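Quality-control log, excerpt.
Job 1 of 2 completed; input and output follow.
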Amino acid sequence: MPSKKKQPQIPLPKSWDKYVKSGILHVFALAQYALIYSRSWAGRRLG
């Protein structure tokens, strides 16, 4: 279950369209998920 810690604020330019901002944040979230998944897979594999 994910923790309830406050997520870091990512400063994005105010002139960006809301769809661009949303897309960028989705890319960050997907990258974070992929990193966590890869690390857990490697931990299970090597440990």
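Job 2 of 2 completed; input and output follow.
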Amino acid sequence: MIKIFKKFKFVLISFIVLSLGLITISYIPTHKDLIVPAEAYNIQNTYQFAGIDTKDVHVYSVSVYSYYNVTLSQYLFSLLNPYAVISEHNDIVNTSSVYINSSGTVQKNVSLINALIAGYQESGKDISYTFLGNIIHSLYGTANRYFQVGDVINEVEGEKITKDKDVNNVLLEKYGYIQIGDYYYINLELNKPYQFKVLRNGEVIDIEAYCMNYQVDDNLLPILGINYYNYNSINKEETNPKFEIKSPDTYGPSAGLMQSLFIYDALSGEKLTKNLIVAGTGTIDEDGRVGSIGGVQSKLTAAIQAKADVFFCPASNYIEAKERFDKLNYKTKMKLVSVNTLHDCIEYLKENMGGI
């Protein structure tokens, strides 16, 4: 046995060192986040409308895989993927699976509702809805001491939240703003309590919340650490045609624009997307306005891999998307189109893609 060990001593030691090295790099965090393309998702699988056949409506959302604070081994493997997007990890972002699931679910549900409102209104169909407040979808830093994902804010600093006057509008009006570089921030104070009324699990509760310090360039800026959307409830009895939602397995709000376009094309009967693969990304609000999203380069890549004919992109993400598109343009005939509203998508398809 000793003779065998001596004979293969170098091989055994090399194997042990290599194994320990692989185990080590599988656990060492790099403080990097990673996004890679996933797939295109047919929105036919999300909505059904009474008496309407959607087989000729070909609208797709695109998804990505996101990994946070990846290990050294994950980072090294990502360098072999030409489509991977690597960024610095932000320590104030909660990346636990429980938090990501709850935040993504709230954002998805708001997106599904907003898309219905925008699509019905744009197609001239009847829809009734009620504004409920600002629903919290993301918490940063110490905000989870006071708030929960899914809290619906009804009131802040004694003033009621409305569809046209959200939390930030109220605070900005009361306390003004400060400018740091090219950006403006609400002038909040670190040790001042801010009063909220929120709806949580069917009960209205009072919350006293404090700011935390957030690093902006060389400045420490007091922020509350919450992100939210307008939150609406649809009255199905007063909506025509009737609809059903088959909630997709994806998370987040970025399918909103494509969901609203699918709804419009289905309800209008114009068949703008027949014989096409129309993909895109972007949040949508109840008025059909498009908002920015994360991971746009990876989502564009997923659309190219799905052989999409057109990719609609929020105007606020266009420069970033165009950078990736220019590198991959030789692989696709897909058109990259910047939009600000659902109506922009519809007009582009009418003017450039033909419809029927």
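Post-run check on job 2. Residues 97-123 form the longest helix (27 residues).
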